[in-house]
Amino acid sequence: MIRCIIIEDQPPAQRVLKKFIGDMDTLVLKGIFTDAIQAMDFLQSEPIDLIFLDIHLPKISGIDFLKTLTNRPHVILTTAFSEYALESYDYNVVDYLLKPFSFERFVQAVSKVQLNRPTDKNNSPPPTTRDFVFVKSGYELIKVTINDILYIKSDADYTELYTTNKKILSQEPLRYWEKHLNSNTFIRIHRSYIINTSKIEKITGNHVRLNEHTNLPIGRAYKERFIKNVLP
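^ thats the sequence. predicted structure below, dont judge the formating
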């Protein structure tokens, strides 16, 4: 897992970053700070891998804060002003997110972070090896044959599992299914979709056809990994 913090003084921007971080299994949020001075104290005692850093901050700017860091974590800058882009790369930042940015653009930035330590991936629960799963839906546990699943769609904090003959509302978020289904077969193609790659009929541009009634979009941030997965 990538341990991260947010340094941002605007509540709306804080909320967006917190939501995007929560939507990614690879990130764990360790704190939110409204100014860099608060964050400095935190960094003295807590190991952090990544900072989402606003440039315009009270007390000390994001750029000046960068200059003070010696043992620097990875940094992704977030700002509404594009004129700092060239200067920021003098400090070897991972990426520069210009507000307002999409989730796909956020994912692209995070994907550039490479850690030189083992991740917590090996501590994650292994995907199921059974040919079925029980889906928690309301007060019921519904048995679903895994190979019958066409795709899974995110619906806020819930998901919808579409099988060959029905739709099931699940109380689990999309990241739950990413962890518990075989990643060689079930792959995320979009912020809102995981598909069963064995059901693909064809791929055209930025869409996947699973059957005559089902064409799903491929998000730009997911396309490269998806294509690598399906090619021999």
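The chain has two domains: 2-122, 128-230.
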